[in-house]
């Protein structure tokens, strides 16, 4: 039994020694020091604060113009015709979807809006609208 314990301890010490030596060999002191210096410099002196000349600032600051969003074009119209809801495209000439949903499933206020037509930018929003009243 003493033999097994001594073999196990020898294996354990040998494994620990190998792991420690691999750890020591993989540490690269110059690269580690460079990383620490770079980290300290970036914390102490941010990149924007390095120069105060106009040339340097012109290269750092880009696109100062105000960006205006493009207006969203309504491209689908949900209309009630003959008691059922129909989805038309933006020209109101092409039928995109027959919903087979009766107008009577909606509250009176929404029935009036649907008779006039409600515009939506995407089909996903139409489906969301329809689900909110049918679920």
Please explain how this structure is put together:
The protein is an alpha+beta fold. Helices cover 51% and strands 17% of the residues. It is built from 5 helices and 4 strands. It has helices at residues 2-26, 29-44, 54-60, 108-116, 123-134; strands at residues 76-81, 84-89, 95-102, 118-120. It has a 4-stranded antiparallel sheet. The protein is rod-shaped, with a radius of gyration of 36 Å.
Quick structural summary:
With 135 residues, the protein is an alpha+beta fold.
Annotation, overall tally of beta strands: 4
Helix fraction, binned, reads: 40-55%
Largest sheet: 4 strands, antiparallel
The number of helical segments is: 5
Report the end-to-end length measured between terminal Cα atoms.
75 Å
Please identify the structural class as seen in this structure: alpha+beta
Give me the strand/helix succession.
HHHEEEHEH
Beta-strand residue percentage: 15-25%
Jot down its keywords.
four-stranded antiparallel β-sheet; 17% strand; 5 helices; alpha+beta; single chain; 135 residues
Q: What topology does this entry show?
A:
Blueprint: H1 2-26, H2 29-44, H3 54-60, E1 76-81, E2 84-89, E3 95-102, H4 108-116, E4 118-120, H5 123-134
Antiparallel strand pairs: 1-2, 1-4, 2-3
